[in-house]
Specification:
The protein is mainly alpha-helical and 90 residues long. Helix content is 64%, strand content 7%.
């Protein structure tokens, strides 16, 4: 079992959104629920100009996002689709 992350970077938040967008891609121009929840965290980071965010702060902003974030970051980085741009930035 891996240790629980206590802090996340903005690139990890972006990657988690990309993973969920790829995983739950739809024909509609709608963002899936997991990506929306994580995007709330990204919005807070952008608003406060934070490069990292703690697990505790994420829980204050959007508790449901933690579950989706942890699950997405366990997935290996893809070299195609939505995740490719995030990987190239890292």
């Amino acid at each position: 079992m891996t240790a629980t992350k206590t802090e996340f970077t903005i690139l990890e938040i972006n990657r988690a959104i990309a993973v969920w967008m790829q995983r739950e891609a739809t024909v509609e121009v709608a963002i899936c629920r997991p990506a929306r929840k994580i995007a709330d965290v990204l919005g807070e980071m952008i608003w406060t100009r934070a490069e990292t965010i703690s697990r505790d702060k994420i829980q204050e902003i959007q508790e449901e996002a933690l579950k989706y974030l942890d699950e997405a970051l366990l997935e290996p980085v893809s070299t195609s689709g939505a995740s490719a741009g995030i990987q190239a930035q890292a």
